[in-house]
């Protein structure tokens, strides 16, 4: 575990030997360490210049460090090995250090302590030269570089116990290692950082700060490299008070607050929302050094833009545009102007940028940012006009990216023809065509079910020599999956590989979902094998679809195997996966295991999610355990959650079948509430309510409550909940299927169908031909010739002539 973690975290300190170069050459010599000579002055000059330029991030810092390493090697004198090489020789030549180093590599820290104590005793008894600060520092450096940052503190603690005289070098090494660990924890859990990870990061940083205070209390003065990792850790967390305290310490310790430290101060002001201070510091820094890191430009303007401080941005841009180094920062500013529809300001600043010598790339990025922001305002006509105004007034020709954004906006607003006009214009003007110009059409056609048109657009790409992208193929694969044409979908995957386009998870996942929906688990697993063979790592969605496929064929063992394999691959289960597992257990008749899984997750303090509980709810309802199902439903409602639509539908059906009509009506009213099941489209939600209306009517009819059914149907008609005539047709289709629903619940027979006919007449509705034909099919499925004769009589009563198909159905029943 130690070795694996060391490999993950050691990247931030790969240049540890350079700390030795800098530290030993300055502070250590000053404090009397005899083992190190000073480096040539030119090395210090270069590093000082690099620091004043204000590196924007750890990558730039490391880049600067690499330059120093080269200088160190360059100035090696008279065959004397470079400092980096010398560090290795020192360790290899000292068997004591080598022994300790090997124990660290093995992660055997208990034996490390024991071996260290033995070395100290042996040294004291033999009278040999003992371990000094130089050797300990070399050991720390080597361990950090080859094992990981977490090794620095244990070795530092051994050094303190040994009683050697400390100096700035070991303190700086251990502080930097701790702060890099704190940063790595934060980075590794970015976007999903839990409380434990936050606490760990804070503890590491607190230890680093504690050591800084300790060294100052011992009279050991920190230098620039000691302060830098702590000062860089504070701004992203908004620690203004601690930052100002350390800034005062730096002044006392004679460490200049320049270069990168000013960069950190500006970032801190942006983080805490003091934009006026950030603006003042930024402009001052630009005056002192117009080569300040471009990432600060980007971060500075991006912060104003993301905060939607458009008025402050308009005030600021005239001051900073002429000295901006960052295309990214410029683009974010213009995107904000477009989003807030500040068209006149945008045109003015584009003109200013052009006059101040902005590069073609910078002008293009600004133009693209402006149109992208304008498109987000959802004012299509204004966005199209904005492009024309920039071309005409600013004399800046629209790059292909602007056309791509406009085409996408046209498609999203349903103006496909205007998008096609823009595509024609791109061709006529010789603009470079890319998949980004075609994908919006393909996505729009797919969204509206115009699948052949989507494929025709792909064919047009081929004719124009435009290579389809991964998005093109993934959209078309989804098209085929929705149509149920899995073989065509699978052939697209093969075509991608033939064309040299590497499929990603968005291409494989729909195939797995499609095969799973068709209960073709074997094919879904074949796709998973191909996915792994191609080096594409399955994600949580992949596994949720595979486990769902297992539930479709009731293969509990395979689902468990997939779940365990998922954990081994480091994919963390989410609500969808827990839901799929709960569904598998319930459908395989192992409902208790499903319930226990949910309870175990809650005992661990993890979030189960509504989806998994919905699967348990559906399982309880299907198993007829209505008291438990109603209790779970009530608990979810009290928590402010609402079960998934399918589980509520199953519960409503089960409650109605059991004869609890009041409970059934109550659940139906819950389903009608707004803001439920936001993942469902309007059409899906309407269809869901239609089906639930049918369930309610069937429940009433099944229990001879025709009056309540009629009362409900009048409400449906008056409140326009659903089309009543369509509902009746669907009820009769249900009877034609033998009175069974998708959950294999037997509801009603043909006798109930005639009751429904009576209900229709009371509402002033006539049964349609389709309704009576469906009822006749129901008679056929039940081999009931007598009831079939009644259906024919009803048709004659309604004046519906017996057509060929009716006569065929009737004759089949008579033969049976």
UniProtKB/TrEMBL annotation:
Keyword Chaperone included in the entry's annotation: no
Cited InterPro entries: PPR_rpt, PROP1-like_PPR_dom, TPR-like_helical_dom_sf
Presence of the UniProt keyword Nuclease in the record: no
Keywords: Repeat
Taxonomy, superkingdom: Eukaryota
Domain PROP1-like PPR positions: 397-556, 699-800
Ranges of the PPR repeats in the UniProt entry: 399-433, 434-468, 469-503, 504-538, 539-573, 574-608, 768-802
UniProt name for this protein: PROP1-like PPR domain-containing protein
Organism per entry: Ceratodon purpureus
């Amino acid at each position: 575990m130690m070795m694996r973690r060391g490999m993950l975290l050691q990247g931030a300190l790969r240049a540890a030997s350079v700390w030795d170069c800098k530290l030993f050459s300055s502070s250590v010599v000053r404090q009397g360490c005899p083992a190190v000579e000073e480096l040539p002055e030119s090395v210090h000059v270069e590093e000082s210049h690099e620091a004043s330029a204000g590196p924007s991030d750890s990558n730039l810092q490391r880049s600067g460090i690499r330059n120093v390493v080269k200088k160190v090697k360059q100035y090696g004198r008279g065959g004397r090995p470079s400092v980096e090489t010398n560090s290795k020789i020192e360790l290899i030549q000292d068997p004591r250090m080598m022994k300790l180093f090997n124990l660290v590599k093995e992660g055997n820290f208990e034996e490390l302590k024991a071996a260290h104590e033995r070395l100290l005793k042996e040294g004291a008894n033999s009278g040999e030269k003992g371990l000094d600060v130089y050797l300990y520092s070399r050991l720390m450096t080597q361990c950090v570089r080859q094992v990981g940052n977490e090794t620095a503190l244990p070795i530092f603690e051994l050094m303190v116990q040994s009683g050697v005289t400390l100096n700035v070098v070991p303190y700086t090494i251990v502080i930097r290692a701790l702060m890099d660990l704190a940063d790595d924890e934060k980075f590794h859990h970015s976007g999903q950082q839990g409380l434990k990870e936050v606490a760990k990061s804070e503890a590491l940083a607190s230890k680093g700060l504690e050591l800084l205070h300790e060294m100052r209390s011992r009279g050991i003065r920190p230098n620039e490299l000691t302060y830098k990792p702590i000062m860089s850790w504070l701004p992203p967390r908004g620690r203004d008070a601690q930052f100002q305290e350390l800034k005062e310490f730096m002044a006392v310790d004679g460490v200049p607050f320049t270069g990168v430290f000013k960069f950190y101060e500006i970032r801190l002001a942006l983080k805490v929302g003091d934009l006026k201070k950030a603006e003042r510091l930024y402009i001052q820094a630009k005056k002192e050094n117009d080569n300040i890191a471009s990432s600060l430009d980007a971060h500075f303007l991006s912060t104003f833009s993301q905060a939607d401080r458009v008025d402050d941005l308009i005030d600021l841009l005239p001051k900073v545009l002429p000295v901006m180094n960052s295309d990214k920062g410029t683009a974010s500013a213009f995107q904000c102007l477009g989003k807030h529809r500040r068209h006149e300001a945008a045109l003015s600043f584009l003109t200013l940028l052009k006059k101040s010598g902005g590069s073609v790339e910078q002008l293009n990025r600004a133009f693209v940012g402006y149109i992208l922001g304008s498109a987000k305002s959802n004012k299509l006509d204004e966005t199209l006009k904005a492009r024309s105004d920039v071309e005409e007034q600013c004399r800046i020709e629209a790059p292909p990216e602007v056309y791509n954004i406009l085409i996408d906006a046209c498609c999203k607003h349903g103006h496909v023809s205007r998008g096609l006009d823009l595509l024609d214009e791109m061709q006529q003007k010789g603009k470079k065509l890319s998949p980004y110009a075609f994908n919006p059409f393909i996505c729009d056609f797919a969204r509206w079910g115009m699948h052949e048109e989507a494929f025709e657009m792909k064919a047009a790409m081929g004719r124009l020599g435009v290579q389809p992208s991964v998005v093109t193929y993934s959209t078309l694969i989804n098209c085929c999956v929705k149509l149920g044409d899995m073989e065509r979908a699978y052939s697209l995957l093969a075509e991608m590989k033939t064309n040299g386009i590497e499929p990603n998870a968005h291409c494989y996942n729909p195939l797995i979902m499609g095969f799973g929906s068709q209960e073709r688990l074997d094919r879904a697993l074949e796709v998973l094998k191909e996915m792994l063979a191609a080096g594409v790592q399955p994600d949580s969605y992949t596994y949720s679809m595979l486990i769902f496929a297992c539930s479709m064929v009731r293969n509990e063992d395979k689902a468990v195997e997939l779940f365990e394999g998922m954990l081994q691959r480091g994919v963390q289960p989410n609500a969808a996966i827990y839901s799929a597992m709960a569904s598998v257990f319930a459908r395989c008749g192992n409902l208790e295991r499903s319930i226990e899984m949910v309870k175990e997750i809650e005992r661990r303090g993890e979030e189960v999610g509504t989806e998994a509980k919905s699967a348990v709810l559906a399982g309880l309802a299907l198993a007829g355990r209505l008291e438990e199902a109603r209790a779970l439903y009530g608990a979810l409602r009290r928590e402010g959650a609402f079960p998934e639509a399918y589980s509520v539908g199953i519960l409503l059906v089960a409650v109605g079948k059991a004869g609890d009509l009041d409970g059934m009506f109550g659940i139906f009213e819950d389903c009608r509430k707004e803001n439920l099941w936001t993942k469902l489209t309007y059409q899906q939600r309407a269809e869901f309510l239609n089906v639930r209306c049918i369930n309610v009517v069937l429940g009433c009819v099944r229990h001879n409550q025709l009056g309540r059914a009629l009362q409900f149907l009048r409400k449906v008609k008056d409140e326009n909940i659903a089309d009543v005539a369509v509902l009746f047709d669907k009820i009769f289709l249900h009877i034609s299927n033998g009175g069974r629903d998708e959950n294999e619940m037997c509801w009603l027979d043909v006798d109930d169908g005639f009751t429904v006919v009576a209900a229709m007449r009371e509402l002033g509705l006539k049964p349609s031909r389709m309704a009576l034909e469906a009822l006749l099919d129901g008679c056929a499925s039940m081999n009931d010739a007598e009831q079939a004769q009644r259906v024919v009589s009803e048709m004659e009563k309604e004046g519906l002539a017996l057509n060929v198909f009716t006569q065929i159905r009737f004759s089949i029943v008579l033969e049976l």
